[in-house]
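ASSEMBLY PREDICTION REQUEST
Request ID: AP-0331
Submitted by: J.K., bench scientist
Number of chains: four
Total residues: 1964
Priority: normal
Notes: Please return the full assembly, not individual chains.
Input sequences:
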Amino acid sequence: MNRKFVCWAAAFVLSAAIVGCSKSSNQSSSEGQSAAPAATKTVDMATAGSISGVVKLDGAPPKYKPINMSADPYCVKANPNPVFPDEVVTGDGGTLANVVVYVKSGAEGYSFPTPSTPVTFDQKGCMYTPHVVALMVGQELQVLNSDNTTHNIHPTPADNREWNKSQPPNAPAITDSFARPEVAIPVKCNVHPWMKGYFAVLANPLFSVTAKDGKFEIKGVPPGTYTVEAWQEKYGVLDQTVTVAASQAATSDFTFKAQ
Amino acid sequence: MWGDWHQLWVIISAPDNIPIVAMLVLVPFFTWYAFHNALANDRLIAQLEADPQLARTHHRTTYPYNSRWERELHTNPFLMRKELLAAVIVTIILMIWALTLNAPLEEPANASVTMNPAKAPWYFLGLQEMLEYFDPWIAGVIIPTLIIVGLMAIPFIDANPLGNGYYTYKQRRHAVWTYLIGFEAIWLVLVSIGTFIRGPGFMWYWPTQTWDPDRIEFNVNQNLDQVFHVDGTWLAHLLPSSWQSSAPLIAKGLFGIIPMVVYGVLAALFIHWICMRTEYSRKIYRKMSLLQTVTLYVFLITMLFLPVTIFLRLVFRIKYIWETPWFSI
Amino acid sequence: MADESGENGRKTGLLDTLKEKSQELGETVKVKAREQAEELKKPQETQLYRAIFRIKHNDEPRNRALSTLNNLFFHIHPAKVNRDATRYSYTWGMGGITFYLFIVLVFTGVLLMFYYHPTKVQAFRDILYLENDVPFGRLLRNMHRWAAHLMVMAVWLHMFRVYMSGSYKRPREFNWCIGVLLMVLTLLLSFTGYLLPDDQLGFWAVTVGTNMARATPLLGSQGPFGPQLGMTSYNDVRFGLLGGSIVDANALLRAYIWHCIAIPLIASVFMGVHFWRVRKDGGISGPSPVMLESEAKV
Amino acid sequence: MPELPPDDPIKSRSFANPILIAFFVLLLCVSWAMYQEFVGLRPWRGYQNEFASAYSAYLQKELRARDAAEKTVSSSADYQKLVANLNQAQDAATPKDTAIEKQIAVVDLQRAAILHAFQTDRSLVGSLIYDYEIVPNTADYKSEKQSRLKDVLDAEAKTYSVDWPDESGKTTSRDMNYKQLNDGFNQLLDKKAQLTASEGDANKPVKDAQDALDAYLAAKLPGLNSTQLKGLLNTVQSMDVTLVQINVNPPGHEINDVGGVGLTDRCQSCHVGTNPKYVPPGFVLTKADLGMQKSNDAPFSSHPDPDLFKWHPLDTFGCSPCHGGNGRALSTVETAHGRYEHWLWPLYYPENYEAGCQQCHSADAWTEHAPALNEAKMLFREKGCIGCHNYSGFDSQADQLQDTIREIASLEKEKDTDNQEIPQLNKQGDQAPDNATAQKLYAQATNLTVSVSKIDARVEQLDELSHSLQQEVKRVGPDLKEVRMKLNPTWIPYWLSHTWNFDPTTKMPQFQLQPDEVQAISAFVWQQGLKGPALDKQPAGDASKGKDLFNSLGCLACHSIGRGSQQTGGDVAANLSRVGEKANYDYLVRWIHDPRVRTAPYDPYLHRDLTPADYAKKGLPFVFDLQHSTSPVDGHELVVQQQTIMPDFRLSWEEARDIASYLMTQKDPGAHYDQASYINDPSLFDKGRTLVEHYGCANCHEISGLEDAARIGTDLTQEGSKPIERFDFALLYTKAQDGILPDGKHLVRDGQSSAWYDLKGFFDEKLADPEIFDEGKYKPDPMDRLHMPKPNIDPEQRDALVSFLLGSTESTLPPSYQYLPTDQRKYIQEGWWIVTKYNCIGCHQIDIGQKSVLMGLPMYQGDNSIGLPPVLTSEGARVNPEWLKSFLANPALSATDTDRDGVRQYLKVRMPTFFLSDDEIRKLVLFFEALSSQQEPFIPEKLAPLTDQERSVARSIFTSPAAPCLKCHATGNLAHDKNATAPNFLLAGQRLRAPWTERWITEPATIIPGTAMPSGLFVRQGDRWVFNGPLPAAAKQYTGDEADLLTRYLFEMTPQEQSMLTGRTPSAPNSGSSSAKK
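STATUS: Completed
Returned structure:
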């Protein structure tokens, strides 16, 4: 009997050892994996710099026909003037609006707090205002309906979860957030097929969306060298390497080629 | 229920039981007949031993003899006609048997309906009966093997040169008794028990007792060690602590050896005593090689073990004499 | 005479000749037929007889001996035997009867094989067919069955006789061993045949019988040291015997092949040896002259 | 040494004698074997010889009688006239006939003349054309092609000399070429066909005369005529004594083939009388005919029900598949009948013959030609066997419902887990290290969402199904939850211990209960009863009115009343002659008013009755019925009705009170009930519950807390295949084998003493008294005793049930023998389950030959049979299935005016509302359609609208004094309808099928023999029906079919039209106004 017991005990210890070993090795490997993106450094606002610049379009913007809103009389009424698609919106001198400029890489080592202010996305005159919103992962998005008609908000992401909610007039704002970085999630309204917008979901708060004057400024950039990317819904992306010195403003201009 | 003669008739008249019923008649008859021949020869032997002169001239058979007669006869026709007659008579018997009794045919085989009793063919009922007393590996494998080997060994361990080719009792007393005990007293009796006594549930039914499939029997069969309350408590004190939990097993195993050895010694002494009874047998005994002697003893001890065990089981309800974790006897 | 006659005459002449010739022929046929009939009274004298039996039929000792020696079937016997060995009182005839029963069994068995399929679906039906449809089928089956039982009895009694007359002694020790094996084969033949009707009787007899094989030491799943050697009911000796873990179609087929081919073949070989040794060891052992104790070479 | 002979005794002894004797004996044995083979094992030879002689004698006797009878008939004047007609026709036809024959002979000769030349030429030309065709059609072969073509043309032009015979018998030689031969041959063929046809025409009068003569003889002298008898006699006298064998195997299989059933029947080898070769169909042969009525060994009768062979042809079915036995073993009677120990399929005894039907007809609720089996199946349900014993196919709704409920429960659980998992998966996706993983997790979550919605859909469906099933599930016994409202508490223990004293015909079996058990069970049942809400108090009613209603409404189709010889009515429901002793009046009123009303709904998911509080929590009123059947707690289906088959007669409260008052008078004045104070003793509760569970009370009754009790009995679906070893004969084993019955008598079966150690014996004794198998057994704990109570059945019913059980086998026959139709007969099969379930046959005749309970009641005999409910044998052909659906759902045919019968308001007996489930209604409609072989789906015939002229003709027919339609048919006018005995015509359009209506108004008696509707209103003239009565001259102009016209008229009938006509027709027999005014 005793011998039997010894045997069992040995087997048990052995197996425990094996299990233990394998477990520890597993742990280490998974840690290794997650260690890379895990950010530990925080941004010292004192030394943080910024990136700014202008985005331009080289060439003539495409010509658009006015949108036919006759499907919904309200929309016709709300827009006495013809409305054009806002896919490519240029300002004077070919400045390009609705371009998301953001730090694509180089900031992985930092952890950024999620901005507590929600981003608003309004539906007004059967169009989205703004046309493109950028927000950080986990940042709250508020969708408003200022129209006196029912819209539905239907983001069709590639990486995030898809949803589709309807919003009658005067309904409370729909709030949601996105868990995964994605530039950019197309948004549409199934009731008004011409309505198109974009949500650019970014891993860090280092982003900016150009206005009609094509200007952007990314603030709070810790010193370092970054790849900055500009995204435009029609023309795609442009990358630039930018080095930011401590408490300095770096500039970087982008020019998209009209096709 | 007793006195159920109908039940007895049912058993005896079952077509597949006819052979054993016939054997119960034939074997005594042929035993008597063999002895009839043997005793005649024995008388002749006695006569010749008493009269050495006659012994020198005598033709030495009990059959009629005339020196003018041919000592050997032509096979054709003198043997062949007898063979022909025998063949015809056997054919007649067979035909009458086949015309009067139908070979049994029961329901189609059905694994989910157990026959009760489920019996082997009659010639194997001895072995099946042995299953009641021994573990299957002994009854089903060891004993049949020993029987076959033992039978085949007979010519080689029977060192007695006398009685070669003629019936005799006087000159082969031990040999004759051994066979009678082995074949008739053990084998045939076991077959008969299996056929006539064992009923539903393979339980013991006396003749004329009704076979009742619902009968419930209560038997407590004890191992010999239980009878003697061997539980290994005293052994436990002697053993190192790590072995203590297996003390009962060890004690049983060790205890079992005792009766086995005792039986072996007693049986050997008994056989030895038998072998030493007459001057002639002593002579033969001396002539036997060691191997012959040992083989003879082993087989005889084993053979006698069967009735002893059966007796212990049936009368004293002893299950195992020697129980070990690996095998039990 | 015929030539001289006219047209009619010639015709008549031809007729006469024909008549004459046919009468002659008739006489000859009559005579020959009589001769033939006479010959038939002694069939042993015919050419056919001689062609078959090779020897003249007359009562000369030589021819008697030759009649045995020259016959394939008879020559398992010696030409001459001990005069008293022809007595039933000594031999009981059991050996011969056993052999005869074996022949009967082969004969009836072969006939039964014509009607029997060793498959689960058909086996039982075939027995019903034999019992009710086949001409003499029931008789055939009964005879086969009872001859098998008789053979077991005859074998046992034969052994009893050989033992009681001490016929296993030198020089017949080996033949006794062969005999023991033949007895075992007889039992196995009978046992394998038991399953073939595929009825409850056979099924359970074989189940009980083969369950013992489970307990074979080392080779059985429930035998001593069997499980330790990795024996389960799917690889042990019983599985080998039955071709499965239960008595089923494979067991039926195996029983059939053992019963009809393998064991009869083996038994025939042993029988050949047995008979050959009987002859070589000096024919039937006795009855020998009795010996006295004083003459024993001990 | 004794003297020895000089000669060797062995040598000198002769063996000749022993060998001779032995061979002689062997010869005897061989002869014996021969005898056995040819005679001993072949007893059928003897039977056949015996039959041949006895039957020949019988046939000769018959022949003599027949000859005499034929002589009488042939001397009659009618016969003479017919014979004269025949002769005359023959005489007239003969000259024509001979002329045509002659012509045919000439044609034959001509054909023979040209045949040889024609055939030769045809084959020659054919072979030449072949040679021509195989030459390729190219330039290289052009010349050859042409030369071969020439050969063909030459051959076609070649003439053959033919000896052409003409009609005068002369032959002329003609030269004929290929075309002439070919055309000539075909012309001859045509000519012969023409001649043959004209010969038939010429002989038609002869044939007609012969037919008339035959018809006359057949009418005067039914059965075989003397020629046929002589032929039969010849056949029998020259009978070949031989084995008659039927190979009962699927086509293409020999007896022992794999795939066959191995069944061979030789029964007809002894049962010669069943062989149609000797006893032709329609010819009945009994033992008495053969003068063997006393013999036990004369298997010569013909089959008593030869109709069965129409559906079970002898050559494929044989005998033993139905009857059992070992059809091939002819060596003895015992073996052939399989009545020996080792044969698994012994011959059924006569009282159990119908067991054979059940083997293949187990899917039937009603099998034609098997009355006992049908009764057994009814009994199996009515006597509550089905309560405890499962039997596949019988009332499976309860099991289906249980399965459904279980499935719903498990689906809900699945849904819950899914719903919990979805957010978790999404969260994991949000936190996933890479997009691919995230997408996978999101997709999983999405899939789960979809599967949750699928679960919802499935649950919805299951709820719908269980709604239907809840309606279909019925219990054998009454609801014991309401025992406190319904019963007199002292009655309960009395009933339990003296069940059959109180009601000798009850379906409740007698449980063998000890007094303490009775008390405990009563207490448990009482205390477990619902205590509220209280019943409405009911004022007393008028018992005498109630009695009339009770007797006339149709209650007696199921219930009986009166005791012993006074008992009338059906046996499906309780005998009510002592109901007043046990029942509470208020409850009875409610019950009669609507027996399906429950006090509280049962929620099978919560396993309890719902209370008003449950409803109040959700703000719902405590209302539950078929329209409000979902649970406010879990949203699933509730039990909202009483699980009884008793239908709702749609009575007014007043009528219900009248009937209840009448029933309360039904008492035995001498009855005495002991006080039962223990009934409220809570200490008995637990013991009572254990006993109730032990005896399976909840298998038949609804009892609180035990609603879902599983069946406690054995599954009997294949009981007949169980090996005998599985039946526990207990201490009766030996007695059973010795054939000693429990009462000590020796069992006699079929005239022979017999053992009862077989299935039949076990079933017989078990059904007679299940307790005997406990006899002598040591069972100190009463709970160890066998559960089964003694069923209340008479010996005949027992035989029927035993047949049913014996036939409940796992059949060894191939599936093709099973009666599992896939065509319309399937609807019939399914429908019978419902028809028998609701005892439709208590009131209606549905199957030809079947009698309803009401038809047997004294109050409907003779002229009173006019008051019986309608015969439904042609219902499927009669009515529009859409209408039938609505009628079955609501027989009042009105949502408001419910205290009436929708069709036959003139009948006192009323079609009640059964609350059939949609599925049951569908099956019933299909059943009636299938029973009348109607096409499915029903597309109504388009009837041409009536023209004004047609309408006036129809009107004149309708109002003709020869067709006083409105004399019987109701009109809706109360005064008029007092004496109406037929439905209102206004219903015809939507209710009836036009073809049936036309047949009905012309030949009603062929549809329902004995109907009050007169036949002969129309007569057939040519191919149209013409009204058989006086019509105004204008109407006589009408040339169309007048029956069709009247049908169309009826289908267009409007109330205005009807009221206009009532003024014109004698509206009732005693209304005074006589003939119709024109």
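REVIEWER COMMENTS: Residues 117 and 252 of chain A are 27 Å apart (CA to CA).
SIGN-OFF: pending second reviewer
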